[in-house]
Amino acid sequence: MWSQQWNNIYDMMIPFPDKTNIDVTNTMREKGWNATHMFRVSEEFFTSLGLLEMPPEFWDKSMLEKPADGREVVCHASAWDFYNRKDFRDINYLLKMALEKIAFLPFGYLIDQWRWNVFSGRTPPSRYNYDWWNLRTKYQGICPPIARDDAQFDAGAKYHIPGNTPYIRYFVSFVLQFQFHKALCAAANHTGPLHTCDIYRSKEAGKILGDVLRSGSSRPWQEVLKNMTGTDKMDVGPLLEYFTPVTKWLTEQNTKNNEILGWPEFSWTPPIPDGYPGDIEKIANEKEADTFLSNYNKSAEVVWYEYAEASWAYNTNITEANKDVMLDKNLAMSAHTLQYGMQARNYDYSDFQSPETQRILRKLSEIDKAALPEVEQKEYNQILSDMETIYSVAKVCRNGNKDCLPLDPDLTEILAKSRDYDELLFAWQGWRDASGKQIRGKFKRYVELTNKAAQLNGYADNGAYWRSWYETPTLETDVEQLYEELQPLYLNLHAYVRRALYKKYGDKKINLKGPIPAHLLGNMWAQSWSNIYDLLVPYPNAAQVDATPAMIAKNWTPKRMFEESDNFFKSLGLLPMPQEFWDKSMIEKPKDREVVCHASAWDFYNRKDFRIKQCTVVNMDDLITVHHEMGHVQYFLQYKDQPILFREGANPGFHEAIGDVLALSVSTPKHLQSIGLLDKVEDNAESDINYLMSIALDKIAFLPFGFLMDQWRWKVFDGRTPDSEYNQQWWNLRLKYQGLVPPVPRSENDFDPGAKFHIPASVPYIRYFISFVIQFQFHEALCKAANQQGALHKCDIYRSTEAGKLLGDAMKLGNSKPWPEAMQLITGQRNMSAHALLKYFQPLTDWLIKENTKNSETLGWPEYNWTPVQAVDPLPPSEESNSNSDFLGMAVSNGQAAAGQWILLALGIVLVITTIIFGVMYSKMKSRAKMSSSQMELK
After folding, report:
1. Who has greater pLDDT, 569 or 123?
2. pLDDT digit string, tens, across residues 122-175
3. Annotation marks residue 758 as catalytic
4. DSSP structural state of residue 403
5. N or C: at which end does the chain have fewer Cβ atoms within 10 angstroms?
6. What pairs with residue 69 in β-bridges?
7. Can you say whether residue 647 is alpha, beta or left, with left for phi > 0 and alpha for psi between -120 and 50 degrees?
């Protein structure tokens, strides 16, 4: 009933059916054994050891059989089970024992794991059944045969839960009994395999066992165990020794059959039999389902539009009033999702003819945050809004609060243009103090609530829910494999960049075998290094691609940048931006109010209103961002006539890739010349390397950052990273994958992940890593459709309607099909692949390898513990100094403090001189002795 022992299905798995097995049940029946006889045989075993016989009261008062008079009794056996120990010599016997003893171990372990989590509050009532099955899958590899939810309480179907009986005792006993068995066998002078031992009639073994039993609980169990076995520790060694023959046999059988150990496809569920009672109340009428979905679609367009408008108003004018309206509309949208999502769960769509109807009902049944109780929904929305507000209005101030700099454009410009180590540190550290550190207190509760919502939707945690959007069970291993393919290119780029920074900042700030300080790479998060291209240009005398000077010289405006992007899409035969886009988008930062400057594209779900919000700066970097955001809007336009739940990318990475794939053409020298931003195009190897370097500093430098962001969050969501290690694990990942270190010591008072928009805004990030891979797959396929010849990095699909049709057809699908179908439509194959990206950068890869070899560069950062020499704290005090100072724990005047400091300085000089004198004297006595040194690590 509980899958705690599997010996009752032994007949299905007898290793050697023609050999002796030890199930003597039929023989017992043939000889007329009854319950009393079984107990008499058991008693005789104990007395044969010199132990006590059962008293008369035992035989008079025990209930050995279920009464036949109709009364209810507790049938759970509450003393020793009976085992027959004949024939100890074969695999059949050992497997039978394993089906009882080994099969039990995970069950014996997990029952109190579950209860301890319940008692401690880690498993709340809303998650009783979910966590029960999570543990059973994790430890036993068992799943329920039909769907279970938190309306059920399957843990209570085991006697010990309602009986309030601790259960870990049984797990412990299954280990200890083999320790006891080995000790008793030794006392009985048994020789040979442990599983063949029979202590029957051994008075020596009986005495040892009797001594243990007589001690009761009068002594600590460790003492009793040591007296019996020679050790005071529980030990699985005897158990493993006992089962060694069958362990070896199982290993051989599983190897021969290529069995998979474990259950990697842990989310698999068995099919439900036709007509099973659980489906009786479900609606199986497809026409009725279509009517239901039509009503949902119409009402959702209204409700989602109202929320989008309220959210837009808040994001473009951050006020408390606008936030309150947005939160109210969010609750209304959640209520709508909950209402229709619960109704969608009433449909049995397994036999529906339309795959689209099945897909929509399945998506609608996942109600996301609407699954939370209303009070917790409000709390979640408030936390998310608060975190995003903190991020969006954060400023870094000099001179008290008089000269305060927002992220965009001021701090961003400092990181991009300054080459002063300390000024860069001021901006880098200041931003993290103003944003992430202020968010940390709210993030833990955000994790709890978002995990609860995911679990109420049937997922282990929020990370598992996010990954489910890709409909790829192997997503984690797939992206890991992609990253491993791309890592050698990143390591070569990292080594080359580190050398250039070494030339700029010197050996105190850069270690040629260590990680790079994270504030020196031209970007607040070191996700793109293109802003320090001037320090890295391979051939300074060859042509370099930077459209920014021409854009400024020709008086380009943000609107002109968007118009050029629109022209590019139209040249492919794709859709122009509607008038609402030009009328309602925010493409420059307003001067009269606070806004969320992070660039984003918006679908208002009424099939005509699409906008972009961006604090655009006239430079080439933002020109690329414009194409990226316009790519989102083009996707919106293409799938606008799909049902509302299909108005998404084929997967989240597709949505990010569409604009970027066009930017690969836009950034080519050929295209920039065609739109008047480049005077001439030099077609030679040196110019090619310069160009590829400029692209790699954006695309390749990003890869580990795009990969690690959600590696960190997935571990936070599933509990592998506790809140006490948020910042430590963040920097562990940044060191491991990016080869970066913080320029100043960090602690758990900081929250550096929160200094990146997507963390407080709860935007999944693995989509960007995926998009940076698949955009090159798209680019290669579109170039082929455009009949472009030559190197992939020179391809420009501008004005190719053939390429545009390929892209448009895939975008029209939205999310109506699994993403591999959209991938196949564009590329002719169904998988993500790094091949096209590696092909694009092959000339640069070859050049980097040659250059790094010439300079004897170290790939990677073997001296990973290195930290840069710290500058004086670059952050000025936020307030003017008070008249008193703290000196050695005492409040003294500024003058007294200064005098004290001079006295300490003088004493310090005297101490140094004295130390030097003694050092010289000591060195004379120890001439030629070897010197030793030690390192101090600052963490």
Report:
1. 569
2. 888 878 998 899 899 999 999 998 888 777 899 999 999 999 999 999 999 999
3. yes
4. E
5. N
6. none
7. beta
Residues paired with residue 603 on neighbouring β-strands, in sequence order = 610
Beta strands in 208-335 (DSSP E): none
Q: How far is CA 866 from CA 529, 730, 862, in A?
A: 22, 17, 9
Residue pair 433/874 in contact by the 8 Å Cβ criterion: no
Q: Residue 434 corresponds to which tokens in the numbers above? A: 């103003």
Report d(CA 244, CA 507) in Å as an integer. Answer: 58
pLDDT in tens, 798-841: 999 999 999 999 999 999 999 999 999 999 999 999 999 999 99
Contact 609, 328 (CB under 8 A): no
Q: Rounded mean pLDDT of the chain?
A: 88
- Give the chain's largest Cα–Cα span: 110
Of the candidates 160, 241, 301, 379, the residue annotated as catalytic is 160
Question: Which residues does the annotation place in the binding site for Zn(2+)?
Answer: 628, 632, 656
Measured CA to CA, the distance from residue 109 to residue 779 in angstroms comes to 53
Question: Which among 286, 725, 758, 851 is annotated as catalytic?
Answer: 758
Mean pLDDT of 735-743: 98
Q: Considering only CA atoms, which of 4, 2, 173, 185 is closest in space to residue 88?
A: 185
Q: Tell me the DSSP string of 597-613.
A: -S-EEEE-SSSS-EEEE
Alpha-carbon gap, residue 217 to 370, rounded angstroms: 53
pTM for the whole structure: 0.67
Catalytic residue among 100, 366, 564, 629: 629
Q: What's the token pair of residue 179?
A: 């320790």
- Per the CB < 8 A criterion, the answer to whether 280 and 348 are in contact is no
What DSSP assignment string belongs to 519-543?
A: TSSSSTTSS--GGGHHHH-S-TTS-
Instruction: Point out the annotated binding site for chloride.
Output: 470, 767
User: Tokens in use for 316?
Assistant: 């473009």
Note if 448 is an active site residue.
no
- In the structure encoding, which two tokens stand for residue 708, read together? 């690690």
Query: How many helices (H) and strands (E) would you count in the chain?
Result: 35, 8
Amino acid identity, position 742: P
Question: Span 481-503, mean pLDDT?
Answer: 98
How many C-beta atoms lie closer than 10 Å to residue 896's C-beta? 14
**DSSP structure class, residue 821:** H
Would you say 367 and 457 are in contact if contact means Cβ atoms under 8 Å apart? yes
Contacts of residue 189, defined as CB under 8 A and 6 or more positions apart, other chains included, come to: 204
Check if 160 is active-site.
yes
